[in-house]
Amino acid sequence: xxxxxxxxxxxxxxxxxxxxxxxxxxxxxxxxVGIRDRLRASAADDLTVEVVGRQAxxxxxxxxxxxxxxxxxxxERAGVRAGAHLRIDxxxxxxxxxxxxxxxxxxALVACDRLWNLNLGRDALIELGAELGSDVPFxxxxxxALGSGRGERLDPLPTRHVFxxxxxxxxxxxxxxxxxxxxxxxxxxxxxxxxxPRVEEELIGALERGDAAALGRALANDLQPAALRLNPALxxxxxxGRELGALGALVSGSGPTCAFLAADGAHAAALCKGFAEAGHxxxxxxxxxxxxxxxxxxxxx
Length: 301
Ligand code: ATP
Known about the structure:
Layout: E1 2-18, E2 24-44, E3 47-53, H1 66-78, E4 83-90, H2 100-115, H3 122-132, H4 136-141, E5 144-148, E6 153-156, E7 163-168, H5 176-190, H6 201-209, H7 212-218, E8 220-221, H8 224-230, H9 233-243, E9 248-251, E10 258-262, H10 265-277, E11 283-287, E12 293-296
Parallel strand pairs: 1-8, 3-4
Antiparallel strand pairs: 1-2, 1-12, 2-4, 2-5, 5-6, 7-10, 7-11, 9-10
Helix pairs in contact: 1-2, 1-3, 2-3, 5-8, 6-7
The structure holds adenosine-5'-triphosphate.
């Protein structure tokens, strides 16, 4: 059973105060973008994982791998005794703020649900996903959605439009908890008054209308100042994208991947070329992308 699952960008990431459970209250517009990890689940007695592809050496191959944790949770809840061998082909930057681990967890839930003939359905898998991580429910959902709580509560945001993005991964990753901690430090230094997180109407309207120029202007990420302080080189990456004519530029999630909005496919190709000339790797991705998709159900050898 082979499943492909897309990465995400946060078009808006509004970070509120810290809750009693230690998580920050967030309001975010999740957008699934067509850069995909591929996960193959095959029948086995135990639960094992191997990882190949981009930055595979940075991904754990023990029980801490998010895909393994997802398969284990599904087996426990469904009372399954069978195991699975998971083979992950990474294409999503690791620790890049694009929820690659969450994509693999979502792919594992969908693949093992089919491999073990459980047919639990998307809603049940989304609920299980919330136990694995804040971004996992959206990784199962795909498309565009408003995330609230710590990001796990979803309300779909329908849009009939396709947007072109250029993603520029950075050297090294950023740890999500470290970026939140830096955000708290900056807020303490600047005397931030706690306010509930909110998403501006301009962004929702631009998404609905398919207005890429307005969407580009509305992109915003409350974690960006913290990510820039931890990795100051990202400032230059964002500037390069703006100078090349991107409609919008921001750090994706907790970073360090930077996301640039293009007007269309040709504009995205031109941005990629400009980034390559400036010495950066750039990846073109379109979205909203559907959630995890079975690309091979193993029935035909
Ligand atoms: P988010 O945006 O959700 O915070 P991220 O994109 O910044 O996530 P991930 O690529 O999901 O980061 O990886 C975060 C860490 O999780 C990695 O440093 C890695 O050690 C660990 N990890 C566990 N399982 C996986 C997996 N299947 N793929 C990638 N990383 C994984």
